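Progress report, Aim 2. The chain analyzed during this reporting quarter is listed below.
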Amino acid sequence: MTLLLGAGLVLILGALAPAVWLGVRGSALERLVGLQMAGAVLVPVLLLLTYGYGQSSYLIVPLVLAVLSFAGVLVFLRLLDSRS
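Predicted structure tokens for the chain:
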């Protein structure tokens, strides 16, 4: 259990920090890449935390996040396309 929680913490610190950096700085397309990267990182982090705490009922959260982050990026791409 502690190993899974530690792996989740490492992923949060190591992979989410560059995603937040991209989301805060740069052009609109770079911010969109940061958003997609954050979504891709948070899904395995939430899966690790779900298994680490032993709450299988929380599995729906990362699965819904995976679908919604992809759909959100498609919406933002449509908005970016109409602006340029």
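The radius of gyration is 15 Å. The chain has a mean pLDDT of 85. These observations will guide the mutagenesis work planned for the next reporting period.
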